[in-house]
From TrEMBL, chains A, B:
InterPro entries documented for this protein: Ig_E-set, MoCF_OxRdtse_dimer, Mopterin_OxRdtase_euk, OxRdtase_Mopterin-bd_dom, OxRdtase_Mopterin-bd_sf
Gene3D superfamilies documented for this protein: 2.60.40.650, Oxidoreductase, molybdopterin-binding domain (3.90.420.10)
CDD domains (alphabetical): SO_family_Moco_dimer
Cofactor(s) of this protein: Mo-molybdopterin
Organism: Evansella vedderi
Protein name per UniProt: DMSO/TMAO reductase YedYZ molybdopterin-dependent catalytic subunit
Pfam families the UniProt entry points to: Mo-co_dimer, Oxidored_molyb
Classification of source organism: Bacteria, Bacillati, Bacillota, Bacilli, Bacillales
Keywords: Metal-binding, Molybdenum, Oxidoreductase
Positions of the Moybdenum cofactor oxidoreductase dimerisation domain: 235-350
Cross-referenced SUPFAM superfamilies: E set domains (SSF81296), Oxidoreductase molybdopterin-binding domain (SSF56524)
Ranges where the Oxidoreductase molybdopterin-binding domain occurs: 42-215
Amino acid sequence: MYNRSVRPFLTTRSLAPENQESPIHFLTKPIISYEYFYLRNHFNYPTLKEENFFFSIGGEVTQPQTFHLYDLLQMPKRKVLMLLECAGNKRSKFEPKVYGEQWEEGAISQGVWEGVSLKDLFQYTGLKAQAKEIVFEGYDFGEDKSKGKYLSYKRSLPLSKALHEDTIIAYKYNDQPISLKHGAPFRLIVPHWYGMASVKWVKSMDVVSYSFQGPYQTEDYVYYPYEDSDIDAYPVTTINVNSIIKAPLNFSILKKGEHTIKGIAWTGMGNVRKVELSLDHGQTWMEAKIEQEIKSHYSWVSWTFLWEFHKPGEYTLLCRAIDSHNRAQPMEAFWNRKGYGYNRISEIKVKIEG
Amino acid sequence: MYNRSVRPFLTTRSLAPENQESPIHFLTKPIISYEYFYLRNHFNYPTLKEENFFFSIGGEVTQPQTFHLYDLLQMPKRKVLMLLECAGNKRSKFEPKVYGEQWEEGAISQGVWEGVSLKDLFQYTGLKAQAKEIVFEGYDFGEDKSKGKYLSYKRSLPLSKALHEDTIIAYKYNDQPISLKHGAPFRLIVPHWYGMASVKWVKSMDVVSYSFQGPYQTEDYVYYPYEDSDIDAYPVTTINVNSIIKAPLNFSILKKGEHTIKGIAWTGMGNVRKVELSLDHGQTWMEAKIEQEIKSHYSWVSWTFLWEFHKPGEYTLLCRAIDSHNRAQPMEAFWNRKGYGYNRISEIKVKIEG
């Protein structure tokens, strides 16, 4: 009863389906445990039955097959530290405001996924010459309230992405079987793409010779640059270069003196090359110190910056990450009607008192 | 491991000291259990020792005394369903933005507090004629980071408020001993005032003949109407008339047709007399149906309103509560520098799809 222990929790955005943010500002380790990994669902959780421990591969393959968890455990392993970020992360920051789940900064988490590269897996089935995409279907289904339709969750990957050596069908997370809420027993893990590509509860992989047109890649997870028209729309894929300032917290009140500014930065193309901070609204930029705790192409980096606040007053801190492809966080967000890929320069305000 | 249960959590605002919001939008019962009761602290939690089970009464009394929990259990009981709301609740909504903990709508919770009326308790000590205020000190102490000083938490109540029959020194919450995080073993419970008055971990009550000038009532918990000046400042006391819309969630996307709009409303003066909704930016108002689940002067009321959305488009819903003293939520928030008492008309936007 007399419990003094203090810990953060997931932040609830909705319960049916369950959508919860990671308390990312309050986590200090580079590997996030299940209990703090963000949850983003389209439907209620599926019930895990014996049949879920199988998935099938069919379509444009020379040898259609069904695989059991035990089969996968016999295959070569691939283990990668990888972040997943929801394409709607930071949606609440768009101006004008955008409808949908009002994610703040916590729809991102990372940890070690382990499984089999699809490139190895497809050795067992072969691929026909006309194979173009692989359609992944999850065991999750139900009414999609925003569409008023009963659906299952299905998305495709082009063959080139699917056969990247770090695109894996994972069965472990942080050396434990994947938990139900995160896709047990099999979750597709797609490096560098937003999280909607990493299909949970994988039921089947269907190799097709055409461009798959499911609603989760032709209606949702599409950038629509205009409010009233669908022209110039294009699909959401690669994670944008991005960052957050973890400390101090936005709108906090601090004492004069030295403060360590801390955060993380990440990208879906190459690596984070540089993180810069500005205290003069972007006129001049100073380089933060980057620490990559664990070597991985797919993880965020931590950064710190020591700053001494000499004078009381209100300060605006800007932070931008720049990746090895020279993509930098922009001064203006790319507004799009469904609110994906927000990566405007990160900003906090603090008040320094005497 | 295969846990499908879905539940909300507290939302973390800071961990040292611990400040966490109630997931109020996702709770349906009128009585909030400990695990969902908001947490608002000035310091780290005190360690509970044998001595904490005593508090002393001194100062301008005829008979100074120390009381043990067992003494209180022998006295007449007072049991009240009462809400507590942090004075900073909704602070994040102020425009221009205000520094400090960025509470959204969940720094409010309610349940059944049980203990002894101070009016009965002070029968045992008597009060001298010059008694003017009672200063309550908690066992919590430490560095107040915004002040750069070591302090304990102390606040006073004027005698008239302290001796109201529903101002109690509580030792139970929802029929259980109060948990450490909420003030065990003794918490002052002050009806109709914002939560800062309901001192936790009560250590002493000091009756004084003057106006107590502690920082938690002369620096913090003061309305400062101007950014650069302290003129016209006055202390935060009574809870403002207020409401929240619990469903639909802000910026949600809904299908055409009938939807039940739901929320709660409360006040620190009298009762909630009426809750009204507007779909035309405040030109016309329609009355919501109020349900008071449990009879209490100090609890919120639930309200519902059935509305049919005929046409796709974006809608703004406004909600205002009006109390029995004819206080209504205003169209403009009363801006104040430290961000207390926000009670502008509640607002959500929803998008209706065909």
